[in-house]
Amino acid sequence: MADEGESVKVAVRVRxxxxxxxxxDAKCCxxxxxxxxxxxxxxxxxxxxxxxxxxxxxxxxxxxxPDGYNKSQGAGKGLDGATYADQQQVFDELGQGVLNNAYGxxxxxx
Length: 110
Description:
Elements: E1 11-14, H1 19-23, E2 30-33, E3 36-40, E4 47-51, E5 54-57, E6 62-64, E7 70-72, H2 87-103
Parallel strand pairs: 1-5
Antiparallel strand pairs: 2-3, 3-4, 6-7
């Protein structure tokens, strides 16, 4: 059963650029440091900071294994020292709790 004191968790995850974004030579305007996510307006260079329970960087800093799984290269290997968040990390920190609650009969939504 879920902890009585458990509350809503808010997470954001930045994905890699898709093909269209790469073709257009898009620039990443997001930076992450621990729970802080910073978005910088490319036109004005004005930055806004947001704090979430979890900020997951999945844009670069990964190693693709032979089976296709993307694993972190290690701490600080991404843009501006970000650390790649792989599927296992996201599942361990968020997904497992949702699963446990569902098994316990508690309504959950990812």
